[in-house]
Amino acid sequence: MSSTPTIPPLTGTVTVDVPVDQAFRVFTDAFGSWWPAEYHIGQADMATATLEPRQGGRWYEKGVDGSECDWGQVLAWEPPHRLVVTWQINGHWQYDPDPTHASEIEVRFSADGPQQTTVSLEHRRLERLVDGQALRDGITGGGGWPSLLELFAKAATNQT
Amino acid sequence: MDTNGVAGLGVLGDPSRRAIFELLARHPCTVGELAQELPITRSAVSQHLRVLKDGGLVVSHAEGTRRIYRLNPDGVTALRAYLDRVWAEALTAFGKAAQAASVDSEQEDV
């Protein structure tokens, strides 16, 4: 039994003017083409990110120097309607291989019509990310958050 | 394209609030210290801090006559707010990529 309180899941939706199978394909096969490159965890700049198209597949980034960093793995692969992956990046902005610390992202693709798809995303089990004090240590001791916030600042700068 | 649910970017959608959030992540600060680091007035800093406090990202305590602000040490809300922003940007980028794919396939059909 965990004493960690449940954190409300994050949700988001986006509607796109493409058929459902194409929306699924862009989200998965072409993941590296649209994922904002500033959100990565490797030491090297991110060259690409990959979501392997099968249950149990890896979700990882590849740096410009060829190094690879895992983000999580594919729990459910149900093209073209549903995808569940783990997000195992903790408050230190590092991969945490412990499956009990894995949060989950479920993405659903529903056809509004032949040429329109609504993509709904839910990022849940966030409390698992903060088990083990990693996040608290990061905030109070320095270490995790500065690097995370560098990315954050970079992202914010790029926006303006 | 409709980005219902992701367009707001939450409490950290404002650049000044992001800057304050970032400074507080490095070390606790007073309003005056934050205002020195940022191109906004003390009163603007105070207003942003109120939003950040209401959102649960920041807490404060008094030390003598000074009020010190810091990130909420339970961290949960701060992490959630950060990820909220990551997904807002990611879904927006995905939406653009999907729309571009749509234009490409239309051109192929012609």
Mean pLDDT of chain A: 79
Number of domains of chain B: 1
Specify the structural class of chain A: alpha+beta
How is the CATH topology of chain B named?
Answer: Arc Repressor Mutant, subunit A
Number of helices of chain A: 4
Offer a concise description of the structure:
The complex is a heterodimer of chains A (160) and B (110). Chain A is of the alpha+beta class. Chain A is built from 4 helices and 7 strands; from the N terminus they run βααββββββαα.
Structure description:
- The complex is a heterodimer of chains A (160) and B (110).
- With 160 residues, chain A is of the alpha+beta class.
- Chain A has a single domain (12-159), classed as 2-Layer Sandwich (Alpha-D-Glucose-1,6-Bisphosphate, Chain A, domain 4).
- In chain A, 23% of the residues lie in helices and 35% in strands.
- Chain A has helices at 20-28, 31-34, 134-141, 144-159, and strands at residues 10-16, 46-51, 58-63, 68-78, 82-87, 103-113, 116-124.
- In chain A, strands 1-7-6-5-4-3-2 form a seven-stranded antiparallel β-sheet.
- Chain A is globular, with a radius of gyration of 16 Å.
- Chain A starts with 9 loop residues before the first strand and ends with a helix.
- The relative contact order of chain A is 0.19.
- Chain B is mainly alpha-helical.
- Chain B has one domain: Orthogonal Bundle (Arc Repressor Mutant, subunit A).
- Chain B is 60% helix and 11% strand.
- In chain B, α1 packs across α3 and α2 (31-37) packs across α3 (42-54).
- The longest helix of chain B is centred in the last third of the chain and has 34 residues, at 76-109.
- Chain B starts with 14 loop residues before the first helix and ends with a helix.
- Classes of the chains: A alpha+beta (160), B mainly alpha (110).
- At the A-B interface, β1, α1, β7, α3 and α4 of A face α1 and α4 of B.
